[in-house]
Amino acid sequence: MIPARGGSKGVPGKNLAEVAGVPLVARAVRAALAAPTVTDVLVSTDSEEIAATARAAGADALRRPAALSGDTASSEAAVLHALDSFEELRSLTVDVVLLVQCTSPFLTPGDIEGVAAAVAGGAADSALTAAPFHGFLWRAPAPDAAATGVNHDPAVRPRRQDRPLDLLETGAAYAMDATGFRAARHRFFGRVLPVPADPARVLEVDDPHDLARARALAPLFDVPAPRTRTRTRIRTEGRHPS
Q1: Burial of 75 (0-12, 13-18, 19+ CB in 10 A)
Q2: Average pLDDT of the segment spanning 148-158
Q3: Among 215, 223, 229, which Cα is nearest to 32's?
Q4: pLDDT at 28
Q5: In angstroms, how far is CA 64 from the centroid of its own chain?
Q6: Biggest alpha carbon–alpha carbon distance for the chain
Q7: Is the pTM higher than 0.90?
Q8: CA 92 – CA 150 distance, rounded (Å)
Q9: Measured at the alpha carbon of residue 45, what is the angle toward residues 36 and 236, in degrees to the nearest 5?
Q10: Residue 231 is among the residues annotated as catalytic for this protein
Q11: Mean per-residue pLDDT for 127-145?
Q12: Is 54 exposed, middle or buried (0-12, 13-18, 19+ CB in 10 A)?
């Protein structure tokens, strides 16, 4: 499931903004369709233009209710709505549900496959893409206030190789056991598995500067798009990711 609202304060029309000539929502759809374990791709949106773009890229589109389309609506609520609607429309039970964010323009099929396979194969109840992080984090209660160390003692500056490995949640892709997700109503529950992602590709488009960076970096990261996989409506044995 790819959430893609029509409204965005940081970047108006963000999910239709193009990177390397391809709308962000279409880039996410293409990556999801190229992940072997994924069986269906559904874009949840309140925008007819986004819905049309999603369908043209090979996904199905679901009209999201206004109550789930505001700035305060959670991604979990949108996923639950999409999950219930998909099962009702298809008369089937989904075993694994994925949340894929189109605001991560350099998300790869391998990233999506990694989280999907982790849950579908039983290694995890929920999984997320995460990148190695070696920075020292600081936190200040206000812009002019004194800061304190978050993941380190400021008086001790160990070498990078001597520090424990921290992982940065990329915000790009998540997979959840559908039954557990419905019970928890949150994307993290049970055994949570971080799936390694390339830190160089970590970029979330939240403001115009992010979009400009994505457009500048696209020639370095983009490769020729894989052929769009032919979608089938036949449920295979085992778990059914959506």
Answers
A1: middle
A2: 90
A3: 229
A4: 98
A5: 18
A6: 60
A7: no
A8: 46
A9: 25
A10: no
A11: 93
A12: buried
| DSSP helix/strand/coil, 159 | coil
Given a contact cutoff of 8 angstroms between Cβ atoms, the answer to whether 92 and 60 are in contact is: no
For the stretch 12-53, pLDDT in tens is 889 999 999 999 999 999 999 999 999 999 999 999 999 999
**C-alpha 29 chain-centroid distance:** 11
Q: How far apart are CA 106 and CA 198, in angstroms?
A: 10
User: Cα-Cα-Cα-Cα dihedral of 227, 50, 85, 9, to 10°?
Assistant: 130
H or E element at residue 118: helix 109-120
Check 139, 157, 185, 231 and give the catalytic one: 157
Backbone angles phi, psi at 116, to 5 degrees: -60, -50
Q: What is the rounded CA–CA span in Å between residue 180 and residue 157?
A: 41
- Please name the helix (run of DSSP H) or strand (run of DSSP E) that holds residue 115, with its range, or none: helix 109-120
In angstroms, the CA 150 to CA 154 distance is 9
Confirm if 77 and 187 have CB atoms less than 8 A apart: no
pLDDT tens sequence across 42-95:
999 999 999 999 999 999 999 988 777 666 678 899 999 999 999 999 999 999
